[in-house]
Amino acid sequence: MASERIEKLLAMQQKAEAQKRKAEQQLKAAKHKISIQRNKERTHRLCERGGHLEHYLPNPELLTDEDVFLLIDYFFSSSRVRELVEQMTASRRGELPQSPKELIDAAVQRMPKPSVSSVTWHDTDEDDAESDGSSPIP
Predict the structure, then answer these.
(1) Which residues contact 99 (CB under 8 A, 6 or more apart)?
(2) For the whole prediction, is pTM greater than 0.85?
(3) Using an 8 Å Cβ cutoff, are 75 and 81 in contact?
(4) What is the dihedral of CA 105, 79, 53, 115, to 10 degrees?
(5) Residue 56: closest CA among 79, 74, 72
(6) Exposure string for 88-108, b = 16+ CB within 10 A, e = fewer
(7) Is 72 exposed, middle or buried (0-12, 13-18, 19+ CB in 10 A)?
(8) CA 10: distance to chain centroid?
(9) How far apart are CA 30 and CA 48, in angstroms?
């Protein structure tokens, strides 16, 4: 009698261990799929953002990676830009009522307007400029 109980218990144990192994394999497979999906999403995000950056670069193939990194570092050396990024991140977390677009629009409105005297036009036709004596180039 005791041995029948032990055999049943051992069979239950083996079945439970098999189920555990199967569950562990399923867990491992699910974690792997999550990792693959995250990598795909990151690759897509990097391509989208890199492509958008290249849209603003004239002849991007002429610039080295270092050139682009220096340019990006220059952009983010501005405390205004870093503060705006923090605000946009807070907005996406739901900590600010404004949308990132609203934050950008407000930042653009706060930008100092260039004064007319600080603008130099270098594409003026020299003949036209000489004729009326108003050449902005000394």
Answers:
(1) 91
(2) no
(3) yes
(4) 60
(5) 72
(6) beebeeeebeeebeebeeeee
(7) exposed
(8) 55
(9) 27
Q: What is the pLDDT of residues 91-113, one digit of tens each?
A: 999 999 999 999 999 999 998 88
SS3 letters across the chain: CHHHHHHHHHHHHHHHHHHHHHHHHHHHHHHHHHHHHHHHHHHHHHHHHHHHHHHCCCCHHHCCHHHHHHHHHHHHCCHHHHHHHHHHHHHHCCCCCCCHHHHHHHHHHHCCCCCHHHCCCCCCCHHHHHHHCCCCCC
Q: List CB contacts of 36: < 8 A, sequence separation 6 or more.
A: none
Tens-digit pLDDT profile for residues 44-94:
999 999 999 999 999 999 999 999 999 999 999 999 999 999 999 999 999
